[in-house]
Design goal:
The protein has about 475 residues and is of the alpha/beta class. The chain is built from 16 helices and 15 strands. It has three domains: about 80 residues, Arc Repressor Mutant, subunit A (Orthogonal Bundle), CATH 1.10.10; about 120 residues, Aspartate Aminotransferase, domain 1; about 220 residues, Type I PLP-dependent aspartate aminotransferase-like (Major domain) (Aspartate Aminotransferase, domain 2, 3-Layer(aba) Sandwich), CATH 3.40.640. Helix 3 packs across helix 4. Bound molecules: pyridoxal-5'-phosphate.
């Protein structure tokens, strides 16, 4: 087990984190801002808060304000006084807030989870819930089921496509409990038993598994260090009469590649010639971290495309919201396929997302945090694991590292012994292999990433020493985000 020491939060860092807190009254606003930052991980758990005197000076408030705010934190379970050593951050009910065990290979306590490419909630999410609760009364008189989606959210989502130059009517949007659910619905609607579906490899495995479990036969197409091979895609589409092709053209999970506009146009031409429908997963599309302009949506090149979207990566996975943008002629089939799975997503969360989207497709604070985390991870990897190679992603949530030897599964095992959970390449491989790769997300706070890096280096020293081994068959686990 790795040794843990309590991090110390400086007064300056805490003051910057809570800057602009509500001052009516100041102690309550300060406590609320601290609780949000402790809750979403900006101020780490188990960390020592600055002394009341230091924080008073850093914030330029009265000492009573800080004393009362700290008292509120303690009352609500977000801080704990340790006799003679100060006040430490915590979460109420501690352990029950740890990641769900279904997503982790071992006991979650104390593990740094680098399996999940999904970040903590951005600042402002709590306020969006409070505001959305005020919108709720208007819906209470109805039955609360919205199988196509809550109208204001359908409108807000359609507007995001309009802003990207893709005319979209709100009735083309079907709101789902996440993009994975959207993939399952679309697979049901578009693929029959035994029909073939082209999928990228490596790729986000839960989506391909859900397509497979709808009865489709998967035909893998490699995405390598250079990205997509359009010639291979064209000739496969000519040979295989595929009903659909599932692709992730924006910050592809796990490789991080972005398909260029020219490649989209060429891909669309191949699909048209083959009569194959594209299922385009845009879960990471809004996460451009370098201020770059993204290529137009794939559906702008291939109008018959069914597009999947997610609130999980651009806002928060806990919203459990995603959507389908379908061409009008497919909307009825998609709604029919969804009705046998569920009857709609929760109303409050849809109101929250409608409010968030009114501010833009992603919050700038969220991007800033991810950018900082990417910097820490990529610099740390270059320094501490110099024989790993990677292409630097311009966005998304993870880096796909090539190891000098095919030992990723062994690396994940060694990392787990050092309380770091990792996903090895084979989990993303549609037809086995890829043990030379590991996906490392930058979704965790910088303190976690800094703590994980030396443990990764140690794990690699232990796992990578004895050269290549046969690639393990199958996957340890499919679940990953
Ligand atoms: C490409 C891709 N699609 C879908 C999902 C699942 O998203 P959601 O949380 O909206 O179900 C993920 C999550 O990692 C993903 O990477």
């Amino acid at each position: 087990m790795a040794q843990t020491t309590s991090p110390v939060l400086s007064a300056a860092r805490v003051a910057t984190t809570v800057a602009g807190f509500d001052r009516s009254p100041a102690y309550a606003g300060l406590a609320e801002a601290l609780i949000e930052a402790i809750g979403d991980g900006r101020l780490g758990h188990g960390a020592r808060l600055p002394s009341e005197r230091d924080l008073t000076t850093a914030l330029g408030v009265s000492r009573t304000t800080v004393t009362r705010a700290y008292a509120m934190l303690r009352e609500q379970g977000y801080a704990q006084a340790r006799h003679g050593s100060g006040t430490y951050t915590r979460l109420p009910h501690g352990r029950s807030h740890a990641p769900d065990r279904v997503l982790l290979p071992s006991d979650a306590e104390g593990v740094i989870d680098l399996t999940c490419a999904a970040a903590s909630a951005p600042p402002g999410l709590l306020a969006a819930f409070t505001e959305a609760a005020a919108d709720l009364p208007a819906y209470l008189g109805g039955h609360g089921y919205f199988p196509a989606g809550l109208p204001p959210l359908q409108e807000a989502i359609a507007a995001t496509y309009e802003a990207r130059g893709l005319p979209t009517r709100p009735d083309q949007i079907i709101v789902t409990p996440g993009a994975l659910s959207a993939a399952a619905i679309v697979a049901r609607a578009l693929t029959g038993r035994g029909s073939r579906v082209l999928v990228e490899s490596p790729v986000y495995p839960n989506a391909t598994e859900s397509i497979r479990s709808a009865g489709a036969r998967l035909v893998p197409l490699p995405v390598d260090a250079e990205g997509w091979d359009l010639e291979a895609i064209g000739s496969t589409l000519r040979q295989v009469r595929a009903a659909a092709a599932y692709l992730v053209p924006d910050f592809q999970n796990p490789t991080g590649h972005v398909m260029t506009a020219d490649q989209r146009a060429a891909y669309a031409a191949h699909l048209r010639a083959a009569g194959t429908v594209a299922i385009v997963d845009e879960a990471h599309q809004a996460l451009a971290l370098d201020g770059q302009e993204m290529p137009p949506p794939f559906a702008a090149f291939a109008p018959g495309t069914v597009t999947l979207g997610s609130a999980s990566k651009s806002f928060w996975g806990g919203l459990r919201l995603g959507w389908i943008r379908a061409p009008r002629e497919l909307v009825d089939d998609v709604v029919a396929a969804r009705l046998v799975l569920d009857l709609g997503a929760p109303v409050l969360e849809q109101l929250v997302l409608a409010r968030l989207l009114a501010r833009g497709p992603v919050l700038p604070e969220h991007l800033a945090r991810l950018r900082a985390q990417r910097g820490v991870l990529l610099d740390g990897l270059a320094e501490q694991l110099p024989d790993w190679t990677f292409h630097r992603p311009g966005g998304g949530l993870a880096v796909w590292c090539r190891l000098p030897r095919a030992r990723a599964t062994a690396l994940a095992r060694e990392a787990e012994r050092r309380d770091v959970a990792l996903t090895a390449g084979p989990v993303f491989a549609v037809a086995g292999g890829l043990d030379r790769f590991v996906r490392i997300p930058w979704a965790r706070p910088v303190d976690d990433l800094r703590a994980a890096l030396p443990r990764l280096a140690e794990a690699w020293a232990a796992a990578g020493a004895d050269g290549d081994r046969p690639v393990p068959r199958g996957r340890d686990r499919v679940l990953v985000a």
